[in-house]
Amino acid sequence: MRVNFTVNGRPQEADDVWEGESLLYVLRERMGLPGSKNACEQGECGSCTVRLDGVPVCSCLVAAGQVEGREVVTVEGLADFAKQRAEHGSCASGASGACGTPLDAAKRWEARPSDSQAGEGTELSPIQQAFIDAGAVQCGFCTPGLLVAADEMLERNPTPSDGDIREALSGNLCRCTGYEKIMDAVRLAAARQGEAV
Amino acid sequence: MAGKSAPLGTPTKVTQGSRTKGGIGESTLRPDGILKVTGEFAYSSDMWHEDMLWGQILRSTVAHAEIVSIDTVEALKTPGVYAVMTYDDLPTDVKNYGLEIQDTPVLAHGKVRHHGEPVAIVAADHPETARRAAAKIKVEYRELPVITDEASATAPDAILVHEGRDDHHIGHVPHPNIVHRQPIIRGDVESARERADFIVEGEYTFGMQDQAFLGPESGLAVPAEDGGVDLYIATQWLHSDLKQIAPVLGLPEDKVRMTLSGVGGAFGGREDLSMQIHACLLALRTGKPVKIVYNRFESFFGHVHRHPAKLHYEHGATKGGKLTHMKCRIVLDGGAYASASPAVVGNAASLAVGPYVLEDVDIESIALYSNNPPCGAMRGFGAVQACFAYEAQMDKLADKVGMDRVEFRQLNAMSQGTIMPTGQPVDSPAPVAELLRRVKAMPMPPEQQWLAAGEAADVRQLPGGLSNTTHGEGVVRGVGYAVGIKNVGFSEGFDDYSTAKVRMEVVGGEPVATVHTAMAEVGQGGVTVHAQIARTELGVAQVTIHPADTQVGSAGSTSASRQTYVTGGAVKNSCELVREKVLEIGRRKFGTYHPAWATAELLLEGGKVVTDGGEVLADLVDVLEGEAVEVEEEWRHRPTEPFDLRTGQGFGHVQYSFAAHRAVVEVDTELGLVKVIELACAQDVGKALNPLSVIGQIQGGTTQGLGIAVMEEIIVDPKTAKVRNPSFTDYLIPTILDTPTIPVDVLELADDHAPYGLRGIGEAPTLSSTPAVLAAIRNATGLELNRTPVRPEHLTGTA
Questions:
Q1: Which one of B140, B338, B415, B562 is least enclosed by Cβ atoms within 10 Å?
Q2: What is the ipTM for the molecules in this complex?
Q3: Chain A residues with beta carbon closer than 8 angstroms to that of B264
Q4: Contact criterion met (CB below 8 Å) for B638 and B654
Q5: All domains of chain B, ordered by start, with CATH?
Q6: Phi, psi at residue B423, to the nearest 5°?
Q7: What is the pLDDT of residues B369-412, one digit of tens each?
C-alpha cells in the first residue's frame, strides 16, 4: 500500500508498504530516519517514541497505515519543532497541523555529514542540549524516545515536580544511567526554559 | 574504627597537561553526544545498504533434543528468499566458536542443548518474508531429559551435555557436566572454627539476570570483491569476535574487516558472538549485504545471562566481633555452553570472602553445564552473586554478636596490606571501613515523603506507586548496608593488553591529535576519556577519535571495568611516545635557539612546547610543520598468574575496586510491595578522569543492582528448561519510577600501579547495591529472605 503523511513538517510518501509494517519500520527503513529506536518493538521501552498529531506514541505499536494524512515529529525534527514552538507560541502542540517545519529547514539536518563526531554548530532544542550538559547520555539508545517524551511533558508542564518528571517518563526505559542524570537534564531544561521566559 | 578520620589520599602527580583545558579530571562532554541527541548516531541496527537482504535465525523450540531432520524445501520456495542455511552448509571444518572453549555450534548439529539455540538461517528481501520463511522450516526433534540443576547434572545416569570434552578443564572437574572448579584453601578452617563463639550458616539463591541492553543484537555484513567481508557490528571486543568469526568463514583475519557501529549498551551481554557469523555466512552465500536485527524476544535468547547461583556459606565470629573463618560453596549454572563460565568461577571463588580480613577459609566454586540458557559475562561477573550471600551473612553475624551491622563490617574490613585468600596482598588503598563510614554519614531521606507535597498522599512516592494500593497504611521503612570487592581487568594470567595508535599533525593551522583504538565504546564514555588523555599528554585542544575497527591492534574487551585502565593506559603511553618524538623534532629544528631545549623538562601545553617553568619555546604548529608523528604501541598492566587448581593460591588479580551502599526502602507489608526510597553509594575511584561519567557509571551500576534485588529474573521452567518471560512485558527492569535518588560520594585514593592512579569503576556499584536493598527489606520486615530477587509472595508468606 501507499502511505502519505507528514514527517517533521515535510510531506512524505511511502510506497510498497506491507500492511503489517509499523510506523517505526517505515520511519527507519523507508524514510531514512533511524533516530527512533527499536529496543523492544512491543511498546514497553519507549525508545521509539514520536509525536503523532502532537501526542507521544510508541511508533512500534502504530501500524503504518494508521498515519495516513497525519503529522509525525521524530527526534530528527525535535530541534526545529522546539524552535517553531518558541517562535510561534503554542501552535507546535501539533494537533491542528497548522505549523510545520519548512522544507529547507527539514533538509538542513538531513544534509549534515554523519561522519562528524562532534557535530559543531548543530542547532539543538533545549531538552537536547540539557541531556548533553547533564550527562544524561551514555549508550544513547533510549535518548531519542526520552527526548521526545520529555519535550512533550515540558510543553504541557513547564514547571514539573520530580514526581511529575518520573511519572511522565515512566514509559521510557534506560539501562545505563540509573535515571539520575536524566532527572538532572529535565530539571535543567525546565529551569532554562523558565529563565528564558 | 567507625567515625574515625579519612585516610589521606595520595595526590595524583600530573605535571604534563595540568594547564591544558579539557584534560583529565574535568567533566568534558561526550564527543558523540550531539549525534546521539539528534538521532544521527549510527547504531548497528541503523545500518542500511543498497540491495541489502534481511537475515533471520530459526531457533529451537525445545531445550534438549536430538534433531531427527530439518526440511528447508518450503522455506526455499518462498518468493523473496535468497538463501536458507543449516549446519550442512557451513563452509569449513570449524563449526563451533566460543570465548575460551569452542563448544558453541554456529548452527545446531544433531542436537540442541538449550531453548532458543540457532538451527537454521534465512536471508530474504524483507524481514517479514525472512521470518515467515524461517517458520516454514520443519525441524523434527526427539526430546531428551533436561539437566537443570546440580543434582540432575551430576546424577550417576546424567546425560552429558557435551560428550567427549577435550578442553583444558576436563582434567580437574569432578564430573563432565561441570565446566570448571576452583577451590581456594588457606589457613585451617577446622581449628579456626573452634575459636568461634558464634557460627552462622546460610543457603542463598541468586536468580538469572539479563543484561537487557536496549540496542538489540544487530549488524550488517557486506561481501567484498576480494572474497572477504566487511562487518559493521555492535560488540564489546572486535578482535575477539574476529578470531572466532574468520575460521568459521574460512577466511584469513585480514579479509574479515570489522568496524564498530553504535553500541546500545552491553553490560557483558556482547562479549560472546550473537549474529556476527550468521550475517557473514548469508552475505558470502548470497553475494549481497545482509542485515540482522534481533527483536527483544530474540535478544533474550541471543545472548548469555548472569549465572544464577546457589551459595552455601558458613562464617564464625568471636564475642568481640572478629571473624574467625569462612567456608563456602558456590554453584553457578553455566547453562548449555561454556561462554565465560570458567572465569566467572575464578572470580566467584577469589572474591567469595568479600572485603574482609579472613585468614582461614575453605572455598569451592563450580559452574555447571546444563540445558538452561547459557550464562556468561554480566557486570560484576561472579563477584555479584558472592556479595549478595556474604553480606547477608555479615548482618546475621553482627546480630548474633550484638554489634551494629556497619561497625561489625568496619571491624573486619580489609585494608591496604591485607592478604586475600589467594595469597595475593592488596597493595593499593582499600578504604572499606571509610566507604562504610561515608555512606552511613550521608543524611537520611525524610520519613513519609509521600505526605510532603500536601494533603493527599503522593502515591508515586509509595510502594505500589500509581497502582494506588496504599496511602501509607501498612508501610514500614527499613535501612540496609552492604560493601563489596571487585577485581579490575582480566585476571588469572590472561595477557590483558591494549593497543593505541596516536597521530599528531597540523590540520587547518592547528595541532591535532588523532587517537585510534579498537576499544568498543558501549556508552561508558571511553571516547570522552581518550580525548581527555590526549589533551593532557599532548597539550592540544583538538582531538579526533578515529572510529574503532580492526585496522588497529586489539584493545581487549570493554568489560571487567578495564577500559579506562588498560586502553586508557595504552592511549597515555602512545601519547607519551608521540610527545618524545615531537620534542625530538623540536630539538632538531629549534634546539639551537634556546638552551632550555637541552636542559629543561619540556612540556606540551596549549599547543606549545614550554619549559616546566612555563616559558614558551616553540609553537607546535611550527614544530610539526610538514611532519606528522605517529605511534602505535601495545600497553600492558602488570602481569597476573593463574590460581592453583587445588589451593587457589596465586597473584590472580590486577587491581581491586570497592563500593558501599546504604539502601532505604519502604515496604507495604500487607501486599509485599517494595519502594526503594534512596540508594546512597560511596566508592573509591582512584582518580576520576571524568567525574560526570564516573557518577553516571556508579548510578547506572547501582540501578542494575536494584533490578536484581526486587524485579529482574529470567524464569526458566524447571521441567522443560524453557524460558518463560523473554520480553520487557514479563522481564521487568527498573523504570524511572522504580529508581530512587542515588547520592554518590566519590573517594579518590590513587593506586600507584595504575595510570593516573585510577581505579576501574564500572562494576563495583553493581555488587553492593543488591545486598543493601535486601538488607533494608529484611530490616523492614524481619524476614530472612535468602533469595534474590524478592517478589511480593516472599514478603507476604504466600510463595
A1: B140
A2: 0.96
A3: 37, 39, 139-141
A4: yes
A5: 33-41+497-636 (3.30.365.10), 44-144+216-263+270-302 (3.90.1170.50), 425-491+653-796 (3.30.365.10)
A6: 90, -5
A7: 999 999 999 999 999 999 999 999 999 999 999 999 999 999 99
